[in-house]
Specification:
Blueprint: H1 26-39, E1 48-53, H2 63-72, E2 77-80, H3 85-91, E3 97-102, H4 107-112, H5 114-126, E4 135-141, H6 158-171, E5 179-181, E6 184-185, E7 189-190, E8 198-199, H7 204-216, E9 221-224, H8 227-233, E10 251-253, E11 256-258, H9 261-275, E12 283-288, H10 300-315, E13 319-320, E14 323-324, E15 330-333, E16 388-391, H11 401-410, H12 426-441, E17 455-458, H13 482-501
Parallel strand pairs: 1-2, 1-15, 2-3, 3-4, 4-5, 6-9, 9-12, 12-15
Antiparallel strand pairs: 7-8, 10-11, 13-14, 16-17
Helix pairs in contact: 5-6, 5-13, 11-12
Length: 502
């Protein structure tokens, strides 16, 4: 089980809503929550399917368009990787439950400064929450901060930051409604078989502190599980074990048998929690999914089979061998939309996790168990004109390498690489794809299709089979890239804290 479903650090920027509580009065809700905290029993409730909404895209839909997409598909819960004001404003009044994330880089300041925690809560939660506002239920404090590849650089900040943020929520009279969580990677725990699961030795003490804190405040344990990464990173990993349709390589663990990697990984965490005295801790799956492009095994068919199998399994309330009849509280699919501006350090597949393409069009049929039998596309998407930039059929393309390098360094060409959907369209097709990706990113500026005379604009769609030549969208509502916006907002927080102290 050691290599099953771990996560690399570059792939995520930044998870988990509460189970449905019977009764509408504050007194009943408070009593049920106290029972959750002190009784030692898992609150059994129907799992809900949510999604991760990332915004690292070159072609951004308007946040209001994405919110409509969520509502049209009856998706009731969404996880954000940052407190994007445009997104949070779009979610106001939608009725969609929100988890908002805090980047790891903020943890140090939040751990040292209660004033910084107060300011963050005021700017990113209090501003949006309330009647007719955004229904913020969770704050994700960091994202997979205990990854082995981080070498402990965030480890000591997590619990102190949570303490300060909890006190800030209390001062804002939000502590009973907004819960703190810490999305953890599956590499936080390890074992050869699920029943022997344990947190990594160097994390034993801090995990005990963290889980105690979560338990005392009525928060679940949030974990990100990726069977695809196990398959991608290990040539000996049995392919059928990554899915939910049975396997010829089951894992035998005493009297229990595991037929898929997800259940095995989940129960490894259950065992690890049991070893530190919290075997009944509610668990939320913060990220889980399958990419559709950019690697061998990343394709539409595999993504549909995995995600549908996962959804069916979770909503069946079957549970796992160590938690029979008790599925995860909720699962958040990764992800809602493709993100063409993400880092490709973990692999080219990082830009292709969406169940929808960048423009909100469903990639494949998927029943989320939320009323619709298949996904509904985004409405009223505003596209650029139907034209594409391709390699000129009449020009010598022998010196095109530098032009392709420039185009692909700026735009997304990950579908051209081995295993990608456009890998087999030929050399000229590759050139055309690179030219067009750059051309669309430049909002179809005429000069951006020049490439020293090697490019030409066409009105005939050059898409071939599954290889789609995109047309950009016209939305320009986000004036800053996500990183720029994060830097600006954090500088403002630090300045106000400094000014307040003076």
């Amino acid at each position: 089980m050691k290599d099953y479903c771990k996560r690399s650090p570059e792939g995520r920027k930044m998870t988990a809503p509460r189970a449905r509580i019977i009764g509408s009065s504050p007194f009943v809700r408070a009593m049920v929550m106290m029972m959750m905290i002190f009784s030692g029993f898992v609150l059994v409730a129907e799992s809900v399917i949510g999604v991760n909404w990332g915004t690292l895209s070159f072609h951004k839909l308007k946040p209001s368009t994405v919110v409509d997409l969520l509502k049209d598909n009856n998706i009731q819960k969404v996880k954000l990787f940052e407190a994007d004001p445009l997104v949070l404003r779009a979610l106001m009044g939608s009725g969609i439950q929100v988890m908002v994330g805090i980047p790891n880089e903020m943890l140090a300041t939040l751990s040292f400064s209660p004033a910084a925690a107060d300011l963050w809560v005021r700017q990113n939660v209090s501003t949006y929450i309330g009647k007719g506002g955004a229904d913020i239920r969770y704050i994700a404090v960091g994202n997979e901060p205990f990854l082995t590849s981080y070498a402990g650089q965030f480890q000591s900040y997590v619990v102190p930051a949570m303490v300060n943020l909890q006190q800030s929520l209390a001062r804002a009279n939000l502590a009973g409604y907004v819960k703190l969580v810490v999305p953890c990677n599956a590499d936080a725990y390890e074992s050869n078989v699920p029943s022997q699961g344990a947190f990594r030795p160097e994390l034993s003490q801090i995990m005990t502190q963290l889980v105690s804190f979560l338990n005392s405040n009525g928060s679940p344990f949030v974990v990100n599980i990726y069977p695809f990464l196990s398959l991608y990173g290990n040539s000996d990993f049995p392919q059928d074990y990554a899915f939910f349709e049975g396997t010829t390589h089951p894992v035998i663990d005493g009297s229990n048998t595991y037929y898929n990697a997800f259940d095995g990984n989940f129960d490894t965490l259950v065992a690890a929690l049991s070893k530190i005295g919290y075997g009944q801790m509610p668990i939320v799956i913060g990220e889980v999914g399958w990419p559709t492009d950019g690697a061998v095994g990343a394709n539409l068919t595999a993504a549909r089979v995995f995600n549908q199998g996962l959804i069916n399994q979770v909503l069946s309330n079957k549970g796992t061998p160590l938690r029979p009849g008790v599925p995860p509280m909720d699962i958040y699919l990764f992800s809602l939309l493709d993100e063409g501006a993400k880092s490709t350090l973990p692999g080219n597949f990082e830009r292709h996790w969406g169940i929808f393409s960048f423009d909100g069009q469903a990639k494949y049929a998927l029943n989320l168990g939320l009323g619709n039998k298949k996904l509904k596309n985004a409405r009223n998407v505003q596209y650029l004109p139907s034209r594409w930039c391709v390699a000129s059929p009449s020009k010598d393309l022998s010196d095109v390498a530098n032009h392709m390098k420039v185009a692909c360094n700026v735009a997304d060409c990950t579908t051209l690489d081995y295993g990608g959907s456009c890998n087999s369209i030929g050399a000229k097709g590759n050139i055309s794809y690179a030219f067009n990706s750059y051309y669309q990113l430049q909002m179809q500026n005429e000069q951006s299709c020049n490439f020293d005379g090697l490019g030409v604009v066409t009105f005939l769609d050059p898409s071939v089979g599954d290889c789609r030549f995109l047309v950009g969208v016209t939305d320009t509502s986000s004036s800053f890239r996500p990183y720029q916006r994060w830097v600006m907002s954090w500088i403002l927080i630090l300045w106000q804290v400094w000014a307040f102290r003076i």
